[in-house]
Design a protein that fits this description.
226 residues, alpha/beta, Rossmann fold, DNA polymerase, domain 1, 2 domains, six-stranded mixed β-sheet, two-stranded antiparallel sheet, 13 helices, 8 strands, globular
């Protein structure tokens, strides 16, 4: 679910400037994208609003009760299934819902693809091999694979944390992904909306760009195309 964590940890004021950190001198030979709020727009309040409607609690109350804990990380690395994580959520949020209610709220997260980003992806992928690395879980993965196949078809491979047992921002996770991609870390340009994830990529030796809006992602892609 860390596809959507940044909603609560970063300012919501739009920033159109693309922020780049010092990067290696190797030429860019591949691009590695985040998925949530880079390719697909997310709205975390929709998740809690759905659960609030079913439970009678307020959306803001549920948001304040939720924390990113070890169970969440285990869910994203394939060590805890959704049934068990929903039971954990029930205790954390102090509400009881049917299994269908938990899952429907969980999947209310997605608003859809960023149109300007996905429109540029074919051109970029024709010039540079494009990959994706997302912290997510099997339930969300099934949702975006089913609903947005055209948005992700330009990627040579999508690295899903719950499948590979590794998650951002651990620098070793980026090194593992780079090795599987077949490129040195310094040859990869990483794009993400989380500063922590960008810092992790830089620690692993990648160049990286932090984005905070669809316009930022477009600017980063256009720079790679120029």
């Amino acid at each position: 679910m860390s596809l959507w964590i940044r909603t609560f940890t970063q300012p919501s004021v739009p920033v159109t400037r693309v922020s780049k950190r010092p990067c290696p001198s190797d030429p860019t030979r591949a691009v590695l994208f985040d998925l949530g709020n880079v390719i697909l727009e997310l709205d975390v309040r929709r998740v809690f609003a759905h659960w609030a409607d079913l439970s009678g609690e307020s959306t803001d109350t549920l948001i304040t009760r939720w924390v990113l804990d070890e169970a969440y990380k285990r869910h994203e690395t394939g060590q805890l299934d959704f049934h068990d994580y929903a039971a954990h959520l029930s205790r954390m949020l102090d509400i009881e819902l049917p299994a269908s209610g938990w899952q429907a709220g969980w999947n209310a997260l997605f608003r859809g693809p960023y149109a300007d980003v996905t429109a540029r992806l074919p051109s970029l992928s024709a010039r540079l091999p494009c990959f994706c690395f997302t912290n997510t879980n099997p339930t969300h993965q099934a949702q975006w694979q089913r609903d947005y196949p055209d948005a992700i078809k330009g990627f040579r491979k999508i690295y899903v944390s719950s499948e590979i047992g590794r998650r951002k921002p651990d620098p070793e996770s980026y090194r593992w992904v780079a090795s599987d991609m077949g490129f040195a870390p310094g040859e990869i340009h990483f794009i993400d909306d989380s500063q922590a994830n960008v810092d992790g990529a830089i620690s692993a030796g990648m160049r990286a760009t932090r984005v905070r809006s669809e316009a930022d992602v477009v600017a980063a892609m256009d720079a790679l195309l120029s």
